[in-house]
Design goal:
Layout lengths: L7 H28 L1 H12 L1 E5 L6 E2 L6 E13 L6 H15 L3 H11 L6 E7 L1 H12 L6 E10 L13 H4 L1 E2 L5 E2 L1 H5 L1 H5 L3 E5 L9 E5 L7 E3 L3 H18 L3 E7 L6 E7 L7 H7 L7 H4 L9 H11 L7 E4 L2 E4 L3 E4 L7 E4 H6 L3 H9 L5 H14 L28 H8 L8 H12 L10 E2 L18 H17 L1 H7 L5 E13 L2 H4 L2 E16 L5 E10 L3 E3 L2 E3 L4 H15 L22
Parallel strand pairs: 2-10
Antiparallel strand pairs: 1-8, 2-3, 3-4, 3-5, 6-7, 8-9, 10-17, 11-12, 11-20, 13-16, 14-15, 18-19, 19-20, 21-22
Helix pairs in contact: 3-4, 9-21, 12-15, 12-18, 14-16, 15-16, 18-19
């Protein structure tokens, strides 16, 4: 017989082990049930709860008065279907109700019917539904109808003001638009997106908890701020109508115009045609997205003879030439390297004052004045380039819209100018600028010399212009006066300019520019000048006794109807378009006429090119 193999000690050891294990397990269970209960609850909720984001209401963009909305956000609704679990009868009743409330045609009704026959939990049945219709549908649900339907609020950005041309909204280039993701694109919408957009409200929702505690607000969010622009809506509309008419008459590729206060830099109106309807930006993006780009700030062009005013500023500042200095106009001027420059008519006019050289846009005379800026070509080039820099040519103006470019200007210290380069630069060739850049320079010439920063939005709480100490001074007030009078001389000395810029009771001044256009596609990709197609510009000022407003216009690739040696007439010349816009501006800005302003000039049809 075998003896027993167990023992009391072994039993006690086993019982001890069981006791310790039980104690550990009990303690661990107590830890999870008591100490970690909150974390476990949160984890459970996190597995069932979801986060909901409600977009903020985007701020409104107003005109300068704060009474006309240029862009605003409306509240609309999406109709959501959840037919999962609905009976066939209920699905058909809901479909019939939706067709009735949404006033759907047969095709759309069929789409809704197919959607409500599915087993889906979430289907977007309709968008952009008016709040009053949703309210009616909710009342129907209170009476047991429209089963399996819910509503989600959505924001719709609209541009309520019609533009000055067909299928456009007012100030479309300046404003830009808001895309489907709620982000501003182009113009003010993009530049001030963070201000306008605000930020969304974020909530965590526990669908298993029907009590108020089932919804936790993680971020309250904030509505976007409103913005007041510098734009005069009435003037903006008139300007758009004027450039549209000129575009048709001149068979131009595009026409741009800007009206600005030379003292504050506030842009009162700015537009280009062709333009677009910001409410239809998706269709525009599919057909011609190039329309979104604003040529006034985002595209450069060769400005031509309007730059003669900057050459005039340089020679007056250096005192190398005065407005009364006589210069011999040879018609054609030979330069180093068998190069030459010529006046538009290639005919010599003999001795003329520098003021008349600018007025009649004589390339040869202005180039000679530019050569006098220094004892060498290098020194003269440096002096002219320095003037360009002082006026901000080749630099961003700082205008508060998206997409501004700096232009193309070559520094003679890095890439030396030959005689032909300096001559061309003196009358605005070999340089690429934006219209807003040139207009800013002209504003400085006639406002006492201050290089103001153009602006399209009025900052909160600001009505007046910035402190004079914060604005760079380009030239002295005396030189500014001389340049202002030189611009007035241009439109009075040349009879055709005088006739077609005359505004009874007001003074005007400015400078024309006619520039050839280089097309790199010509000559089998070698490039060449376009034939009988030009860019026409006019930049100037208008006022009763002093420059109250500056106006810039550019007619891109205009088609002249009269082509003679030195004469390129169009149905609407750049300076005529200037007069029309300037007339609209003085009316909308309530600038009273001066009874002592010059009378009507004499009649002539001769129009110099330049």
């Amino acid at each position: 017989m075998y003896g027993r193999t167990d023992s009391r000690n072994r039993l006690l050891l086993l019982l001890s082990f069981v006791f310790v294990a039980s104690t550990v397990m009990t303690a661990r269970l107590a830890y999870w049930q008591i100490v970690q209960s909150r974390q476990l609850t949160d984890y459970t909720i996190s597995q069932t709860a979801y986060t909901k984001t409600i977009p903020a209401l985007r701020g409104t963009i107003w005109d300068r008065t704060g009474t006309i909305a240029l862009a605003r956000t409306l509240v609309r609704y999406r109709v959501i279907g959840s037919p999962h679990g609905l009976s066939e009868v209920d699905a058909k009743r809901t479909t019939a109700g939706l067709v009735d409330y949404l006033e759907l045609g047969p095709e759309d009704a069929a789409i809704i019917a197919r959607a409500m026959e599915s087993d889906s939990y979430y289907i977007v049945l309709a968008t952009d539904v008016e709040p009053d219709i949703v309210e009616e549908m909710r009342r129907q649900q209170d009476h047991g109808g429209l089963l399996g339907v819910s509503f989600e609020q959505e924001a719709v950005r609209v541009y309520p003001q019609a533009g000055g041309a067909p299928r456009t909204s007012l100030a479309s280039h300046l404003l830009g638009f808001v895309n489907a993701a709620g982000k501003g694109q182009y113009g003010i919408e993009q530049r001030y997106n963070s201000v306008l957009a605000g930020w969304p409200q974020v909530m965590r929702i526990d669908p298993t908890d029907p009590s108020p505690g089932g919804i936790v607000v993680l971020d309250e969010g904030a509505a976007g701020e409103d913005i007041r622009t510098t734009i005069d809506a009435g003037l903006q509309l008139a300007l758009e109508q004027e450039i549209f008419a000129a575009w048709i008459a001149d068979r131009a590729r595009a026409v741009s115009a800007v009206v600005m206060d030379p003292a504050t830099g506030e842009v009162l109106a700015e537009a280009t045609y062709p333009a677009y309807d910001a409410n239809e930006y998706v269709a525009v993006a599919n057909q011609n997205p190039d329309l979104f780009v604003d040529p006034v700030v985002s595209l450069v062009y060769e400005p031509g003879s309007v730059m003669k005013m900057l050459t005039a500023s340089a020679v007056l500042e250096t005192k190398t030439t005065s407005l009364s200095t006589y210069i011999n106009d040879f018609g054609v001027l030979e330069l180093d390297g068998d190069q030459e420059i010529a006046d538009a008519d290639r005919r010599p006019r003999g001795w003329m004052t520098f003021a008349d050289m600018v007025a009649y846009s004589r390339n040869v005379g202005v180039a000679q004045a530019a050569f006098r800026l220094g004892r060498t070509t290098a020194a003269a080039s440096k002096a002219l380039y320095r003037t360009w820099q002082e006026y901000g040519i080749g630099q961003k103006t700082g205008i508060d819209v998206a997409g501004e470019v700096a232009g193309i200007v070559y520094d003679p210290a890095q890439r030396p100018w030959a005689e032909i380069d300096l001559a061309n630069a003196s009358f605005g060739q070999g340089v690429a600028t934006t219209p807003i850049q040139v207009l800013r320079a002209f504003a400085a010439m006639c406002n006492g010399g201050a290089l103001i920063e153009p602006k399209a939005v009025i900052p909160e709480g600001r009505e007046a212009s910035p402190s004079p100490a914060a604005v760079p001074v380009v030239v002295s007030p005396s030189i500014s006066d001389s340049l202002t009078e030189l611009m007035a001389h241009v439109v009075t000395a040349v009879p055709s300019y005088a006739q077609r810029t005359y505004i009874p009771g007001y003074r005007v001044g400015g400078k024309t520019g006619t520039a050839q256009i280089w097309d790199p596609r010509l000559n089998r990709g070698k490039g060449g000048w376009m034939v009988d197609i030009y860019n026409y510009s006019f930049y100037g000022w208008v006022g009763a006794k002093q420059p109250d407003l500056v106006v810039g216009v550019v007619i891109y690739e205009g088609t002249p109807t009269t082509i003679k040696q030195g004469v390129l007439d169009m149905p609407v010349q750049s300076y005529e378009l200037f007069r029309r816009i300037a007339t609209d501006a003085i009316v909308t800005q309530h600038i009273e006429p001066d009874p002592n302003a010059p009378g009507r000039p004499g009649q002539t049809n001769a129009t110099p090119q330049g």
